[in-house]
Amino acid sequence: MSRDYEDVAAKFWNLPTKGEEESTRETLFMDDIIQKAHIDREIDSLLARVTDVTTVLDAGAGVGRFSIPLAKRGLEVTHLDISDSMLKKAREMAEEAGVTDRMVFVKSRITELAGYPSDCFDLVICVDAPVSYVYPRHNQVLRDLVRIARKAVVVSVASRLGFFPYWYNPAQKHQYLVDQDSGNPILKWYPPPTDQTWEAWQPDFEDQRRFLDTGLLEDPDGVVAKMERGETPWPVTYCFLPEELARVLREAGLQDVRLSGPGALSRTVPQPVLKKLLFVNLFARILVAPVVGLIYIGAVGSVVWLDLGYALLVSSMLPKVIGFLM
Length: 326
Fold this sequence. Notes:
The chain is α/β, with parallel strands linked by helices and 326 residues long.
């Protein structure tokens, strides 16, 4: 039986509440604050180095966390997403920002980029890991993103090495909450650990090995079976290895590929310490947050890679040159 695993992502991201939920992430989670700050800095750096950028595609743009700021710079932005609720929220936020005249909103899947001609956008971004939700077509999507970009590319994907520690941490994302008592409805996806959670936890080495070998958070057919039973599971997620991502991008024509992981060091810092670093004073906002967000683990040839961030971010200037982040 042929199954389109992307249908799971379509159902999940089209939940009516997702638009409102996703628009509040940077007020709820410290790791999201750090990761967005680093992606913003990389886009800023890229735009400072690349001349005459006027058109942008944000593929998998969500509620406009990156597309709207780009439109505020005066760029012409195509905002593409799979979710009606997030497109609705993005339009509302774009109207509030006064940039609807510089934005085109498109409902589409990122697996449907073949209809765009080559070199049709100066800058193409696809961040916060949409590519990881289109297994097994993730590599083709990466090739399409590079193909339609004329001057620069910024892409982030889920990192296999970064997600691996979650097998040893039942607290998951809950540990990065700014306010542990927040009543935000998005927290239903992140239940707090209890004493019973910690007592019941046992290492599943077989499942850990399966993940490291395949890169898949869960068995795709098992995820689809949940959806067919009427559940709304987390999308099928493919997590890349750094050298794998570098290889795919090189094969697509990019050179001098550099990868990194914003938020990597922050995931080794205890929650109370991280909160103090981020919110105590202006010095922390300016200096400490960027430092906590980034740490390099190793380099192989022209490829710089980092293990701990749960996203791998790549930025690239064309023709055929790539920058960093993750």
